[in-house]
Amino acid sequence: MGALLNQRFLTLAVLAVVIAVLPFVFPSSYYFRVASLVWVSALAAIGLNILMGQAGQVSLGHAAFFGIGAYAVAIGPTHLGIPPWAALLIGAALSAVLAYLVGRPILRLKGHYLAIATLGLGVLVALVISTESGWTGGPDGMPVERLTLFGWRVSGSYTWYWVTGALLLVGTWIALNLDETPTGRAFRALHDSEVAAQVVGVDVARFKLQAFVIAAVYASIAGSALAFMNGFINPDQAGFLHSVELVTIVVLGGLGSVVGSIVGAVVLVTLPQALTMFHEYEHLLLGLIIVVSMIFMRNGIVPSLSGLFLRRARS
Amino acid sequence: MKSKATFKTLLVASVMALGVSQVALAQDTVKIGSVLSVTGPSSFLGEPEDKTLRLYVDKINAAGGVNGKKLELVIYDDGGDANKARTFATRLVEDDEVIAMVGGTTTGSTMAMIPVFEDAKVPFISLAGAIEVIDPVRKFVFKTPHTDKMACEKIFEDLKKRNLTKIGLVSGTDGFGASMRAQCVKVAPTYGMQIIADENYGPRDSDMTAQLTKIKNTAGVQAVVNPGFGQGPAIVTRNYAQLGMNNIPFYQSHGVASKSFIDLAGAAAEGVRLPAAALLVGDKLPESDPQKKVVTEYKQAYESATKQPVSTFGGHAYDGLFILVEAMKRANSTESQKIRDEIEKTKGFVGTGGIVNMSATDHLGLDLSAFRMLEIKGGDWNLVASGS
Predict the structure, then answer these.
(1) In Å, how far is B41's CA from the nearest CA of chain A?
(2) Of A60, A147, A225, B22, which sits most exposed with the smallest number of CB within 10 A?
């Protein structure tokens, strides 16, 4: 237990140091912007990883919750006069309630059927957002009021670097701890075999639903953060392609690995920026890198590499 | 020991020389930025914009540049993703340190990028359609394409001439269609138009017969307007003919102003009217037309360089680039603030989209004369003579 605690602490400490040191090597605020995007994507991916990697369920509509969080902070202050920070909490609560209500029936499904059901949820939410233009500004999106906390106006790439970094630290800490609680162990049991889990007394339906709700709240908060950071939001963020991007981050980084989700986000967010010099071949190279890394690191980047180091260390 | 010191001195000297030469190089070029949707669902807009900018920046540099300085063009592809566009905008401002930007293919990406350029006080000439870009006026944001509001007004003006006042709308739910529909509904009363049927279709729908049947069965519809973009309007046009509705005048928007619309809609497009820029009918313009020279030259240059038919979207990029270049010449400076002031003073600029007269309250500078009313006859665009 002590060793485990240390390992968790170590992961968190390394992440905190990385977040604290990076600003010293960043030459301009553009880098802060990219890093903030990495932290936001990583936060959403860590949540999704609790559902996919720990509890072994799949969601192809996860951007729906991201979108709900984002539009909550856009619509709340603009149309309803709710303070921005409260809108963030309301968005998270809405996502949790929706995940709970929708999760109850659809989490009875397995494999491809569950994938299709979550896909349907994602498409529905994206459709509502782009059609209800009176509230959401339609397909062109809508502006988001700046976040103010106790009279402090949160804006600018530097500020958001620290805010999103802090959110990521908290998200990582919760996910790492969850892994070692009875709930986390129940999730793992589900992942390995639902039948076996049921036999040893795990309430399968309840824990699946819990994982789904937790993942939805993570995505919602990440969505709110992005909306505040950009000061603008459009339906793409709730769309199918964004759902696929989140799943890709989780799988590329490593299913079930919290650090993996962060690494996956680093790769998927920074690569397109780094590849712009190749101009027309950008998308080709991005696809190639993902395919090659999935062929040679089948369990995802972090689990594969750490496995390799452990084997090296032993031999 | 001594040789080492010599080596060190040499190294320092060469590094310094390198630094100096870079400074010299930087003084001879100015950077212009652009974020375009070259790939993705809006690539049919972004691609001609990208080709136009590259083509003309090369031409300008070959002719000696602007104020003796060569232009360096930095283009990023946002793939139609507004969030990516926002990141690239930050990159242009912070990392590439561009003095101005001509880009922003879609309204969504433009709206996402506006705060970056406003904060950095860098002029931004947008290539997006919707009126939100310049209304309310933002200090550093300009645009070249006609607004959807103007398209509605041009159509209503034509309807008024024909004494048609009761109209049906069938609009796409994509950004372009939804925004234009809203503008049409807003300006309809000013022209005495009554919208008595109002239907929608999704951007990827493949049959709009149901919506059109409903309009057909609405008593008293004298004309139908289709605010839409991409393939949708071509399908609507085909369905329109299939339902035998050709006796009701049918209007498309400037969103379909490319040859591929006529190809897709085929014979069904006969008799359809739409407002469009002079570029589409360059060869049919009378010699006296002030835009004749600009549009025929652009068409020729673009088509000979790319071997592709010219589109109005590339024309918007041409206008944006030259409004900027002329402002830079007048300002005789590379300071963003001075260039912004000169862009705002643009008067009588003859572009592919019309004659631009900007002011502190109008960052578009086009009036309704920029639009020509066209009718499709014999598979080609034809100017509608005024008064018919």
Answers:
(1) 12
(2) B22
